[in-house]
């Protein structure tokens, strides 16, 4: 058995088509995210979906919070913000605030479902969180952790040269010996 295709083939592509995504597909993505495990089943994820076709002015407000380097994401028909607050989930010793951890799992679950649906779901952290919080009406204790730009694969010819190159780049990962250990931190996996 090899690595699952949804994991192997998922990439943070930026060439996204503006074509809208059907409601039932979006609902499946949301349900997939909610199937993630969480500490005591606290389910701390909150997902705010904004569809360009349904609510263009609101979409434009959210889009305006993105950093310039993320301008490519303005083509995406859907932006999903994942938010949470530490008090929604386990807070254990040694700084173990599981809200963020569990939201990460929900994001990955959505990404895997998106991959199986042949959608791109590109995570962004490059935006003004304070502006985004205001636009989404998130209470102060909530953190807008990431935005997913979701859409069908698009035309990479529309991307600037550097991003077009990145679309076709080889995947870059640290050597397993740098991140995996056998028994203790001082013994690399291999
Ligand atoms: C928390 C987080 C924040 C990210 N923020 C951005 C971003 O603001 N803009 C962007 O283009 N990509 C962003 N990415 C995508 C990463 O650059 C990408 O996942 C990484 O380079 C690995 O590439 P891959 O997803 O194709 O395997 C982000 C990813 C994560 C997990």
Structure description:
Helices cover 33% and strands 16% of the residues. It is globular and about 50 Å long. α2 crosses α4. The chain has 190 residues and is of the alpha+beta class. Strands 1-2-6-5 form a four-stranded antiparallel β-sheet, sandwiched between helices. It starts with a helix and ends in an 11-residue tail after the last helix.
Measured by DSSP, the beta-strand proportion falls in 15-25%
For the largest sheet, list the strands in their spatial order.
1-2-6-5
Q: Structurally, how many domains make up the residues? A: 1
- Tally of DSSP helical segments: 7
Helix content: 25-40%
Bound molecules: flavin mononucleotide
- Poorly predicted runs of 5 or more residues: none
**Chain-averaged pLDDT:** 97
How many distinct beta strands?
6
Overall spatial form: globular
Largest sheet: 4 strands, antiparallel
CATH superfamily: NADH Oxidase
CATH topology: NADH Oxidase
Order of helices and strands: HHEHEEEHEHEHH
Q: Structural class from helices and strands?
A: alpha+beta
Q: N- to C-terminal separation?
A: 20 Å
Q: Under the CATH scheme, which architecture would be assigned?
A: 3-Layer(aba) Sandwich
Q: Could you tell me the radius of gyration in angstroms?
A: 18 Å
CATH class: Alpha Beta
